[in-house]
Amino acid sequence: MENRTLPSPQYDRSTLVTRCVHLGFGAFHRAHQAVYADILATDHHSDWGYCEVNLIGGEQQIADLNQQARLYTVAEMSAEGWTTRVVGVVNQALHAQVDGLEAVLDVMCQPQIAIVSLTITEKGYCHSPATGQLMFEHPLIAADLKRPQQPVSAVGVIVAALARRKAAGLRGFSVMSCDNMPENGHVTRNVVLAYARAIDPTLASWIESEVTFPSTMVDRIVPAVTPETLQRIAEQTGVNDPVAVACEPFRQWVIEDDFVAGRPEWEKAGAELVHDVLPFEEMKLRMLNGSHSFLAYLGYLAGYPLINVCMEDVNFRATARALMLNEQAPTLKVKGVDLARYADSLIARYENTALAHRTWQIAMDGSQKLPQRMLDSIRWHLANGSGWSLLALGVAGWMRYVHGVDEQGEAIEISDPLKAEIAAKVAQSEQGEARVTALLALSAIFGHDLPQNPAFVKGVTEAYLALLDQGARAAVRKYAAML
């Protein structure tokens, strides 16, 4: 199917003004934040447009997007059928290494730019997940500090743009993280200010007074795009769209209402504007993302390639729900939410056979995810003397997964920014207690407190040995029987 002409949206795209620059034109952003903007343009005559930017990788995405007049398709997938919409809020699309960094900075320094948003994954912040602090030794950060006028990292690019705005007498903009991290706005603020102080303390002071870093909680399951996904969308629309993305029908966005230069009326598209996002972030990170990671590691080891396949195993289903309600929910501060109903809604979303969400995809970048999805909850239980056996099994599942060989003796393709460090710990230790001890020494993941806590070490070690002895399916069945 060669047709690449997408139908134009219902609104007049010529009225859109580029007020948002987004770093990280990945599948999640295409299916989430850009859809909210498209709904506002369609239903409420919003003129807020986007400049999409990829800094590292994704060159073809930007080229394809430009080739089709910066339009792309979003398909919502359910077992009952697929529905599609064409998103048209992108005014401009750039790649820093193709179009040049100057082109990116020029857009970020246009006076009307009010928001720079990010979906760069947790590892894109170049921070320690255990501490939340900028890693000055990170290769990208170390390189950017040597040549701050030619940065490569997202942190460096944001600071370079703000430095130019300050020098030109322009106001600041708001920097809005849309990545899965607790207090993602605070993390972003910390790394930006730490980097800026290392370059120019007066710039850092200006950023503190002129820039805000609102936190957000984002939720929509967006599986990795596959050739089969694109073929299904093409068959439905009659258009071959290589930038198309598919997702579940559900979407949620909770935003801290703290913007220095205005914002779209996201609430008209269903977003929640609040003063404190953290309780909602923790609810989603621990109940949804935590159970997702639990299912990803243990499901992959059990031979289940997809989350909906995990849900067909009554023991995986029962332990995932128990993890949410018995071990994650008690740690939360969120008010006015029926957590049992929330857990049931998550299980129903996991059952969606149309999503085909791969356990391997969710298992990626575990070093960046474990601290907020499981370890912070374990710290709460250790402090409160309550049980956390399923969280222990989840952490043990990660440890067994990063061994790099599954239960059938097949190689596991590990994708993680700490892959080399993890592999070194695996190589230098024997299976069993020694392996647990070796992996716990990764302070960027576990900090310094947990490896020194006998109850933590004992709980994770027992779960790990159970996985080695029984295999993932039998271990999960055993834990389910104790519920």
The strand count comes to 11
Which class do the helix and strand fractions yield?
A: alpha/beta
Beta content: 5-15%
Residue windows where pLDDT falls under 50 for at least 5 positions: none
Instruction: Compute the average pLDDT.
Output: 96
* Main β-sheet description: 5 strands, parallel
Helix residue percentage = 40-55%
- Number of helical regions: 21
Which outline best applies? globular
Account of the 3D structure:
- The protein has 21 helices and 11 strands.
- A 5-stranded parallel sheet has the order 5-2-1-6-7, sandwiched between helices. It has a 3-stranded mixed sheet with strand order 4-3-9, sandwiched between helices. A 3-stranded mixed sheet has the order 8-10-11, with helices on one face.
- A hairpin with a 2-residue loop joins strand 3 and strand 4.
- Helix 10 crosses helix 16.
Keywords:
alpha/beta, 483 residues, 49% helix, five-stranded parallel β-sheet, three-stranded mixed β-sheet
What is the compact description of this entry?
The chain is an alpha/beta fold and 483 residues long. It has helices at residues 27-31, 33-44, 59-67, 101-108, 139-146, 154-167, 184-199, 201-210, 227-237, 278-302, 307-311, 314-328, 339-350, 359-363, 366-384, 389-401, 419-427, 433-440, 443-446, 454-470, 472-481, and strands spanning 17-23, 48-54, 72-78, 81-87, 90-95, 115-118, 174-177, 216-219, 245-247, 252-256, 272-274. The protein is built from 21 helices and 11 strands.
